[in-house]
Known about the structure:
Distance between the termini: 45 Å
Oligomer: single chain
Structural class: mainly alpha
Amino acid sequence: MYLAWIADINPTTAKIIIALGFSIYVVIGGYTAVVWTDTIQAIILFAGFILMVLFALDKVGGWDALMSAQPASNISFLALEKIGTLPALSLVVVVAVGVLATPSFRQRVYSGESVRSVRKSFALSGVLYLFFSFIPALIGMAAFVLNPELGNSNYAFPYLALNVLPLVVGVIVLIAGLSATMSSASSDAIAGVAILLRDIFIIVTGRAPANEHMIPYSRLGIVFVTTLALGFALASNDIITYITLMISTVMSGMFACGLLGKFWSRYTWQGAIASLVAASVTSFAVMWSEAALAVLGNPILPAVSLALGAGIAVSLLTPRNRVSPQQALELLAAQRNATDSAKHCALPAEQ
Length: 351
């Protein structure tokens, strides 16, 4: 959406350009490229957005002018008057589920140097994001003051960049917006490829890919995952709605799997499948009902609830898992240490 506004091109063309952009450096550089580009993009993102807020506040006449120009519903407690209590709760939950279930976050945990470094990095990230969460809200409020007739709220960011900031600063800020997109997309694409090769490949073939095939398979996987994601993205032009619906449909079941798998030893693989299916079916059912969406805001609450319920019910009706956590770790270690097809080990039936 940012690129479409900046370059005055069709949104579909802009989405294809973005997908090609991050795919190229991920295919060439792999996870190392993602780590370094994410770091650089994060710095640009924070600097650019903070500059935008400062210039925007100056443009609208300061904090008091910004607040006085807002409708009462915009500045009510947690904006409950504007969006409603239940939709607000759904929005909070869908953000939390997205953070807890996003595969790229778990991948960062796995690639950390130590438990201490992972905890420290997530704590620092949480504090930074808590601070940063105020900035997009202020940008939107400033855009509303300067142009109340701005049709698409997704254009608030590029509108301010082009109409408030000096040219050089505006370019930096626009790069910051594109950096945010590229950073998120590249990390998630890498996580998708990891799941494709380390989980789905083993389920289909019964063994892990040979080491010498891992890099070319990964590059093909990046192309496949990016193309699939681009296909989904082409169907939507509203960022917040797209994200909330995708999290409700895809990640609510993953969240249930992670929660029950961590805290309930009776959880079985059949229960996990039930959680995934129940979450997606429930989410689609709510999306097809305009009345339900109007009340709930998004499908996350019923999707998570039924995913947890289905997972518990099916687990209680199926045989208990006989593989201990230690045995599971040993199986994973054996797969990771395999160097050729002779060393690949299929998972036992009871797991």
